[in-house]
Amino acid sequence: MRYWLWLIGALALFASAATAQVRLKDLVEFDGVRGNDLIGYGLVVGLDGTGDGIRNAPFTEDIMTNILERLGVNVTGEQSRPRNVAAVLVTATLPPFARTGSRVDVTVSAIGDAGSLFGGTLVMTPLNGADGQIYAVAQGSVIAGGVAARGDAAQVVEGVPTSGSIPGGARVEREVDFALASLPRVRLALRQADFTTALRIEQVINGYFGRGVAAMQDSGTVVLDVASTRASSAAHALSQIENLVVAPGTRARVVIDQRSGTIVMGEDVRISRVAVAQGGLTLRVEETPQAIQPNPFSPGETVVVPRTDATITPEPGVGLAEVPGGTSLAQVVAGLNALGVGPRDMIDILNTINAAGALHADLVVR
Q1: pLDDT in tens, 300-321
Q2: What confidence tens digit (pLDDT) does each residue in 176-223 have?
Q3: Distance in angstroms between the alpha carbons of the first and the last residue of the chain
Q4: 109 with 92: CB under 8 angstroms?
Q5: How confident is the model at residue 159 (pLDDT cuts 50, 70, 90)?
Q6: Is the domain of 9 the same as that of 58?
Q7: Residues 6+ apart with CB under 8 A from 277
Q8: Under a CB-based contact definition with an 8 Å cutoff, are residues 121 and 43 in contact?
Q9: Pairing mode, if any, of strands 253-257 and 362-365?
Q10: Which residues belong to the signal peptide in this entry (predicted)?
Q11: Domain span including residue 208
Q12: Are 96 and 35 in contact (CB under 8 A)?
């Protein structure tokens, strides 16, 4: 039995050598080993007149008043109109197994009408998790993501000056309880659910240990029995398998980004034999106004008479072109390129081929 398990694992490794090999850690998420999103509401001070307008963002004044009162400054009944403060949302991700005192990067984004966060400093801001508990506290100088300059009649903006980051700007104050070492089994969750990939992961892991320690549960889950690996803990078992390589099985897919005109095709995309006719119209409008003047020394005034010449010319195109049935990605690309069209027209052609049922792939339009 052990020999057959080893042989299956060896054959899986040999087959994956012919295609792209990906580390197991890049294909799956280990159950429980995950980050947690944090969010907080704070104040950035020290801006050079680019902060919130208090009249347009009254919440900025509220939080500023609360901070000053916590510091023992009584501002009740006072009306302040500073332009050097801005209300911000602070976001961060608490990494797995983060310990008290460790540092976390944070992102700061203005929520009022502040013009720029350049040169500002984030005042101490608690960061809460989804359960409402405070897990970290953020503070520090903001590194703005852009710059803005304006004058009386014009302005220029480079990047996004109303958003910035603070590397290591939050300190962890509370840990997330998760006992990985005591888990008897660990589930491996595939990032892209696929039965073929899950089976290959099972075979590669069992082939590595020489016995049945992993079992495919469904297309998105493989269960690892920690005790059967004879590792001292789940962490030790994961460290042994996370660098194993697997050839993932993916669905045939064509991804189209209409905004940029980008087309990406997977290796397994196939097209049945079809005939495609593609062409367009060229509209040309020429304006040649003519000035008509009265005779010399005669009464009258100069009149401009509009003259417009509009023509519509059909483009020659390539007529009705045949796209042969593709047995490989190279043949599919060669057949589409034979039409001699640009990326924008190619998007319409792929949509039409898919509507005709000749595109054997998932068409994803973004």
Answers
A1: 777 777 776 766 565 565 555 6
A2: 888 888 888 999 999 888 899 999 999 999 999 999 999 999 999 999
A3: 49
A4: no
A5: confident
A6: no
A7: 317, 319, 320, 321
A8: no
A9: parallel
A10: 1-20
A11: 2-32+179-246
A12: yes
